[in-house]
Amino acid sequence: MTAEVIMYTTAVCPYCIRAERLLESKGVTALKKIRVDLDPEQRMTMMQKTGRRTVPQIYIGDTHVGGFDDLYALDQAGGLSPLLNG
């Protein structure tokens, strides 16, 4: 069972694309994307939940991972796969 992965994103975001590719390489097939460029209310929700303005903002289950750099660092430290596998 893979944890639910949610990513706040925009249409043109190179870090979002890199994050998506990294997650796919880890076997994530169902990525829930929330487009904050299309829905200003979702951007406000994201900012309230994370305290950050930039995308991507990635959640794995209930855990706020952060942006792409945070996701990459978590993977390099060996923490991404265990989090994805619940």
UniProtKB/TrEMBL annotation:
Family: Belongs to the glutaredoxin family.
Any one of the GO CC terms: cytoplasm
The keyword Nucleotide-binding appears for this protein: no
Keywords per UniProt: Cytoplasm, Disulfide bond, Electron transport, Redox-active center, Transport
Glutaredoxin domain span: 5-65
Biological process (GO), any one: cellular response to oxidative stress
Protein name: Glutaredoxin
Role, per record: Has a glutathione-disulfide oxidoreductase activity in the presence of NADPH and glutathione reductase. Reduces low molecular weight disulfides and proteins.
CDD domains on file: GRX_GRXb_1_3_like (cd03418)
Listed Gene3D superfamilies: Glutaredoxin
MF GO annotations: glutathione disulfide oxidoreductase activity
InterPro entries the record matches: GLR_AS, Glutaredoxin, Glutaredoxin_subgr, GRX_bact, Thioredoxin-like_sf
Organism: Duganella sacchari
Pfam families: Glutaredoxin
